[in-house]
Design a protein that fits this description.
alpha/beta, 7-stranded mixed β-sheet, 12 strands, about 40% helix, about 15% strand, globular, binds pyridoxal-5'-phosphate
Length: about 400
């Protein structure tokens, strides 16, 4: 019998059984936490949110101007090409060439996305059959795990540790039965640890993927933040055979709410992902794509100006973390500082709950990124120096 039963307010009506594929997938941590913070704010607490990596600064004025001008035209409001506007794809190709020294064919090797988070889901739906194994970094961005689970994958977390500079331990990986491994998610500069990639590690990754016929998904949204040398995994010899790369406008161009990202890789991979994606959405608002293309034309002074702000804020975050007796590496890239908690707390949850309750400051517990993050916390740089000063004062008091 088809069991349609769920609990409803009226026991005689049985509708809306939640699909099995959501078993083991919970509402996103931040989605729940923001509700709690909302409640606290309604009660007058004025919580300072140092949790989320959503840039608080605006995009470049030229980007906003392009959006306004294009949106004001009468003929820009229809459905768009499923593969994205050629203007945006050309801009992405030029951007990849200029900053990463990667040659991409704008017609076949680039797929603009409605955010790279969505791209993670498209990739999982395109490549995972129920029972396939997916390698996921621990600690790592939680969406890799939930998207892969929704697609029916068996998750195998690979542990990153301070001792191996938060890089995959290939000796340990080689000991696994890799027969069923279909995908491996990788992300450098790494979130949450802020670890930068090395050329040797990227080369080893490609060799590993080739040896075991694993598709590497490199998620690269942080390469321009507090990092002088943006690197793409696609820059390496033979990469297009085994790598697809996600990139994003959210962090590098202060456009998180715009929802624009991109997938780059071999023509075949882009065509495969498009088979899923073109059944999922109906393209992106053209003025937004044209404004995004404008953002990619910005020169070095844009990235310098963004990083100058984050660099100053990071000093404040160091001060805050010293106050909490946390240990951290000062050479992290990306929008956060990752720090080890002092021994007097059981885990990062205990410390961050205490700070939220006592000081009305929200910091992310490292455990939400996987068990290897339990003794850590992550502080966002997406708050003004003024707010950071206020957070420091509240914690001091
Ligand atoms: C590692 C990582 N990948 C992807 C994303 C998603 O970025 P987007 O805004 O492009 O969906 C985030 C956002 O926080 C992230 O931290």
């Amino acid at each position: 019998m088809n069991d349609k039963s769920i609990s409803t307010k009226n026991d005689s009506i049985k509708i809306g059984r939640v699909a099995d594929r959501l078993g083991g997938v919970e509402e996103y941590y931040f989605s729940k936490k923001l509700r709690q913070i909302d409640e606290m704010n309604k009660a007058g607490k004025q919580v300072i949110n140092l949790g989320i990596g959503s840039p608080d600064l605006p995009p470049h004025p030229d980007v906003i101007k392009t959006l306004q001008e294009e949106a004001a035209k009468p003929n820009q409001h229809g459905y768009q090409n499923y593969k994205g506007s050629p203007v945006l794809r050309n801009a992405i190709a030029k951007w990849y060439k200029k900053w990463y020294e990667v040659a991409l064919n704008p017609d076949t090797e680039i797929l603009p996305l409605i955010g790279s988070k969505e791209g993670i889901m498209h990739i999982c739906m395109t490549y995972i059959n129920p029972g396939d194994t997916v390698l996921i970094p621990n600690p790592g961005y939680p969406t890799y795990q939930s998207a892969a689970k929704i697609a029916g994958a068996h998750i195998h977390p690979y542990t990153l540790t301070k001792e191996t500079n938060w890089c995959p331990d290939f000796e340990e990986l080689e000991k696994l039965d890799l027969q069923n491994v279909q995908l491996m998610f990788v992300n450098y500069p790494q979130m949450p640890t802020g670890q930068l990639p090395t050329r040797e590690m990227f080369e080893a990754l490609i060799a590993f993927a080739k040896k075991h016929a694993i598709l590497i998904v490199h998620d690269n949204p942080y390469s321009f933040i507090l990092n002088d040398k943006p690197m793409s995994l696609l820059n390496f010899e033979g990469a297009k055979d085994v790598v697809i790369e996600l990139n994003s406008f959210s962090k590098s161009h202060n456009m998180a709410g715009w929802r624009v990202g991109m997938l780059c890789g071999a023509e075949e991979r882009i065509a495969e992902v498009l088979r899923f994606k073109s059944n999922m959405d109906s393209g992106m608002f053209l003025p937004l794509q044209l404004a995004a293309a404008k953002a990619l034309e910005l020169d070095e002074s844009w990235y310098d100006s963004v990083n100058a702000v984050y660099r100053k804020r990071r000093e404040k975050v160091f001060e805050l973390l010293n106050l909490l007796n946390c240990c951290f590496d000062k050479n992290q890239a990306g929008l956060f500082v990752w720090a080890e908690i002092p021994g007097d707390y059981k885990d990062g949850f205990e410390l961050t709950d205490k700070i939220l309750n006592d000081s009305n400051v929200f910091i992310t517990p490292g455990g939400i990124f996987g068990s290897a993050g339990e003794k850590y916390i992550r502080v966002s740089l997406c708050a003004t120096e003024e707010k950071l000063n206020e957070a420091i004062n509240r914690i001091k008091n």
